[in-house]
Amino acid sequence: MNDASLNKGTAFTSGERQALGIAGLLPPRIEASDEQCARLRDKYDRLHDDLERHIFLRALQDTNQVLFYAFVETHLAEMLPVLYTPTVGAACQQFSHVYRRPLGLFLSYPDRDQIAKQLGAVEGDVDIVVVTDGERILGLGDQGLGGMGIPIGKLSLYTAAGGVDPRRTIPILLDVGTNNIELLEDPLYLGWRHERVTGAEYDDFIEQFVTTLDSRFPGVLLQWEDFAGHHATPLLHRYRDRLLSFNDDIQGTAAVALATIHAAATVQGSTLAEQTICIVGAGSAGTGIASMLRDALAEDGVAESGAQLFLTDANGLLHDRRDDLLNFQLPFAQPWDAVASWADNDGPTPLATVVERARSTVLVGVSGQPGLFTETIVSSMLAATDRPIILPLSNPTSHAEAIPSDLFRWSGGRALIATGSPFDDVVHDGVAHTISQANNVYVFPGVGMGAVISNASTITDRMLLAAARSVADHSPCRTGDTTKGVLPPLEQVQTVSRRIAHAVAAAAAVDGVGDDIDGEEISRRVAQRWWNPEYPEITPNNNERPE
What we know:
Elements: H1 14-20, H2 33-45, H3 50-63, H4 65-74, H5 76-83, H6 87-93, H7 95-98, E1 105-108, H8 115-120, E2 128-132, H9 149-162, E3 169-175, H10 181-184, H11 199-216, E4 221-224, H12 229-239, E5 245-247, H13 248-268, E6 277-280, H14 284-299, E7 309-313, E8 316-317, H15 336-339, H16 351-358, E9 362-365, H17 375-384, E10 389-392, H18 404-411, E11 416-419, E12 426-428, E13 431-433, E14 436-437, H19 444-453, H20 461-473, H21 493-511, H22 519-529
Parallel strand pairs: 1-3, 2-3, 2-4, 4-5, 6-7, 6-9, 9-10, 10-11, 11-14
Antiparallel strand pairs: 7-8, 12-13
Helix pairs in contact: 3-4, 3-6, 4-9, 9-19, 13-14, 13-20, 16-17, 17-18, 19-21, 20-21, 21-22
């Protein structure tokens, strides 16, 4: 009853209660899980705000794992913004104040010599690890140890949306200190009270963690999550071919953005190759999107994509005359000679000018700057295309580059929109339009399942492109109906994840990084590994972790 993976609460049968000696510890009524879910629904509806609801769900996860996932899967579209973005941001900020019981591993820099021992204490096999150092949590910045809410939430979605066995996952927080003064001065803060470790000390700590993890769990999938830009891209490049790993903020965000553009382009009656794309925000997420778009364009026969991809940051358009660009930004710098006339007295080129002069048909926002997309910018896009594709992807909601209702009003209802945070339907000319949330949950659970069942050694670009196309294939836009959004409804996310897992495993075989298996074997493995929230039979002889 104290093991969340075994506890059944009021669903323990009469025989189990007698055999385990717990008959008097529970009310006499024996309930099915759907009856338990009905009671949870009643409790859930009495709560006052989303943070309370998030804490309620986490407490349930801590005590009864099967019931937690049964409840979440039944109401997945409703629970997703509570369990993860945007509510998880507030939960991270309050992590030390609402902490109840441990889940996952906290690997702290002062205890770096104990990493092998700490990982060795984990029982059983592990398929997927999500790790963060808490430095760039959503759009909230450095949350230190509170960043643990992100790996916990992400792994919950791996299971709820992608069928990954929760007993074979570990959330990990690398506590390398924090530069958040409020946390350092908070008497309840649970993390290491020290400024962040940097430089060679940080790199050595990460190396020690990766090496030990790979030794303890060979073949494990490691997902990097919410690392600051100056670490995220270098870590991805350093380790993506050394062990099975990917960065969801870079590659997951890019895949769902690509899927959205693929789907929306069908409404235009065009293709990706016919788009001119402006990406606002040239950090790890923005350059990650640009990199995947470049790969997808190459797959579609566009050898040189420079004339179709324009990136901007706080200092304007990226071009090769700027001396402040980082290494990962350089491949996306425009030739100065091609854009010199766009600049104002050699100063930064404003976003509005870039959109107008490039004749952008797609606008992607990962800047974290609210209100950045204006009516003037939308008007410029309408001059280039009748159906502009506009993706304000920054989250939480308060950081979105534009509000969907404004975009509909400015475009006369013609904009094709997906957002990073959830928004209510928009009514335009008496018709309700669903605003799709371009949530990474469409991609990473299926990628994880596909990589695991194929025994992949690397997450390749082909695998991620296959995942993006699988999402686009389920878009309501394929039927010509744009009122239902550009992405599949979240209620279909498990179906989409299965399709992605199949496509990813097939791509791994083509690239020679996974088992050489055919479609029938892939389907068999997915069905075999897919975890469902069903209570196991418990007796005194098998009350260990059930297989």
